[in-house]
């Protein structure tokens, strides 16, 4: 009932009721648990007097950008890809984003937009591949248009760590499967990038089969792929990312320039392991 009342009040606000001033307006894509955790983490650390929140999934069709402008906040927090896409054209108010993948922020950051990238540094993955799994030859399949920047970061990290990257390019899922076959006998570990061209439901079956047949562990970017054959995944901590965004917002509210606040990687990550796959491959990993 409370949620219904809040929804009605929010709709009334968006369709013509006078807006009231809030120090920070939060635009959140959905009421997903990770988004909620990020939002509460933000509130815990930003130290703001008043927060107004608009959840896009509750307000379909509403002019959220107009409502944000009428609320005249000192800062906007965008939680999720859809939220950032909705507010990215606001230029007169600092915008901090969180829970947004790098692929969705490439054209958004600039004079007034910055935030916490929802990714894990390449060095963290490669350290797991090299030290945790003993793989000195790490295979990557990627679409340059989707994850080219991440592969460039990976090349630099691999050089520092003494790891050899075996890289293949693919412009569609079928090509990704063909390139996967070419990695047989040439890699010790496969690293799945958050690349929607390469990682699909169908290609995951091929990655899992390749892993079993060649005894090559697969490292993924999200725990859901553990159930599809990956041996390990490194995840972000949404609540901690929210706290990180809160600290960034606090600095901006205290006078720092958003442009000077460069986007940050998550400060805290979590290792998840599929122990059945690890046992099958003869690997010992601790979470």
Automatic annotation (TrEMBL):
Pfam families: ABC_sub_bind. Keywords: Signal. The keyword Signal applies. Residues 1-21 form the signal peptide. This is ABC transporter, periplasmic substrate-binding protein. It comes from Geobacter metallireducens (strain ATCC 53774 / DSM 7210 / GS-15).
């Amino acid at each position: 009932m409370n949620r219904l009342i809040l929804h009605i009040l929010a709709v009334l606000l968006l369709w013509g009721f006078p807006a009231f001033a809030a120090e920070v307006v939060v635009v959140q894509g959905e009421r997903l648990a990770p988004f909620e955790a990020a939002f509460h983490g933000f509130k815990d650390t930003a130290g703001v007097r008043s927060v107004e929140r608009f959840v896009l999934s509750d307000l379909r069709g509403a002019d959220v950008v107009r409502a944000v402008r009428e609320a005249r906040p000192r800062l906007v927090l965008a939680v999720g890809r859809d939220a950032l896409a909705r507010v990215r054209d606001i230029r007169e108010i600092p915008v901090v984003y969180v829970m947004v993948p790098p692929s969705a922020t490439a054209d958004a950051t600039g004079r007034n937009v910055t935030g916490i990238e929802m990714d894990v540094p390449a060095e963290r993955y490669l350290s797991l591949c090299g030290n945790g799994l003993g793989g000195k030859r790490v295979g990557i399949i990627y679409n340059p248009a989707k994850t080219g920047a991440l592969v460039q970061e990976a090349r630099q990290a691999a050089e520092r760590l003494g790891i050899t990257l075996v890289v293949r390019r693919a412009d569609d899922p079928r090509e990704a499967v063909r390139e996967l076959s070419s990695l047989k006998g040439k890699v010790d570990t496969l690293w799945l990038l958050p690349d929607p061209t390469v990682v699909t439901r169908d290609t995951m079956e091929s990655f899992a089969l390749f892993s079993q047949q060649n005894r090559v562990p697969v490292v993924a970017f999200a725990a859901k792929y553990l159930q599809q054959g990956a041996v390990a995944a490194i995840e972000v901590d949404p609540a901690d990312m929210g706290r990180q965004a809160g600290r960034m917002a606090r600095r901006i509210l205290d006078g720092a320039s958003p442009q000077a606040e460069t986007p940050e990687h998550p400060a805290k990550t979590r290792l998840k392991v599929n122990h059945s796959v690890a046992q099958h491959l003869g690997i010992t990993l601790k979470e």
